[in-house]
User: Which sequence fits this backbone?
């Protein structure tokens, strides 16, 4: 939400987002003063004066944006982060208002992207360090097996089996960084239907997979197999969490697609984005790992590799997108956002 104002707060220009959030027509906004839109007008007036007088280069504070009663119930005062800065015109100032929730999400996305980049480098280095001696260990165990009595062969078999298991883990860690993207036209609903068919084949009873699609979503350029794997990994995690409810016969996963408009992903603004929700009615993500679920080798279940969500995040980020998670007992939602053309 953006407005261009005079030093006294008189609004000269307001964008459409500000109209939508206040419930006021642009003409009405441009006849008023920006400080009158907030619950604490004096704070805005003081900040405008300080920036106009060059006492500070920009001013920031948090406040509540007043909204028109015409928006109806559920549209009360909106918490916003306000930024006031100078413009190229000496008599005008720029006022930006960012929803606190949105700002928190942007900060979280930025941290996630930085963490993912660090994880990627760590995984590649660690995987290579493990891979090099692993072949030697396996080969030595095979040679040893030829020399020792048959009754001791089971011990070398354990070594070989565990070396093979580690090799599979290393290959999974390196897989997304080895294989080049195969880019083509992607229909997100074909991907959801493929995942739905695979999951229902595995769980024919006790699980409903509900479709809630916006069929107007256009195709976009992407790697179909990567996106299938990303969605499948999230849905598989959900089915594992839903084990008890599947046994009871009331487990449910919802695949919901929508179009989001004017979305910021990784500091870049996009006019349109795919907004895919994968929702389940399971017990929720354990609070102890809720902030770390996309990190490698972090799992909420015994025997889990902790790679499914890491790989899903990697594949989505390769499409300039992001994943986040909102989880409470009885409702967990993974949200994938990918820019649309």
Assistant:
């Amino acid at each position: 939400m953006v407005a261009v104002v005079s030093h006294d707060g008189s609004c000269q220009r307001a964008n459409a987002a500000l109209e939508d959030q206040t419930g006021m027509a642009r003409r009405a906004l441009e006849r008023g003063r920006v400080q009158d839109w907030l619950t604490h007008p004096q704070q805005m007036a003081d900040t405008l004066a300080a920036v106009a007088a060059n006492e500070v280069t920009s001013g920031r504070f948090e406040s509540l944006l007043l909204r028109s009663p015409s928006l109806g119930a559920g549209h009360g005062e909106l918490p916003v982060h306000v930024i006031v800065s100078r413009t190229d015109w000496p008599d005008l100032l720029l006022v930006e208002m960012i929803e606190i929730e949105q700002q928190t999400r942007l900060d979280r996305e930025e941290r996630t992207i930085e963490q993912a980049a660090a994880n990627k480098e760590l995984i590649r280095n660690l995987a290579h360090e493990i891979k090099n001696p692993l072949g030697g260990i396996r080969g030595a165990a095979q040679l040893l097996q030829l020399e020792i009595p048959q009754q001791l062969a089971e011990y070398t078999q354990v070594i070989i089996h565990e070396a093979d298991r580690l090799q599979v883990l290393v290959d999974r860690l390196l897989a997304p960084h080895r294989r080049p993207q195969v880019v083509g036209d992607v229909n997100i609903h074909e991907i959801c239907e493929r995942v739905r068919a695979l999951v229902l084949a595995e769980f024919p009873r006790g699980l409903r997979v509900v479709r809630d699609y916006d069929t107007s979503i256009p195709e976009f350029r992407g790697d179909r197999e990567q996106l299938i794997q990303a969605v499948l990994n999230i849905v598989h995690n959900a089915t594992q969490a839903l084990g008890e409810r599947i046994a009871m016969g009331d487990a449910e996963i919802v695949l919901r697609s929508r179009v989001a408009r004017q979305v910021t992903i990784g500091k870049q603004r996009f006019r349109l984005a795919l907004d895919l929700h994968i929702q389940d009615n399971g017990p929720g993500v354990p609070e102890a790992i809720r902030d770390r679920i996309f990190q490698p080798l972090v799992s909420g279940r015994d025997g889990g590799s902790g790679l499914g969500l890491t790989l899903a995040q990697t594949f989505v980020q390769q499409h300039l997108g992001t994943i986040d998670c909102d989880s409470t007992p009885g409702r967990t939602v993974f949200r994938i956002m990918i820019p649309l053309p």
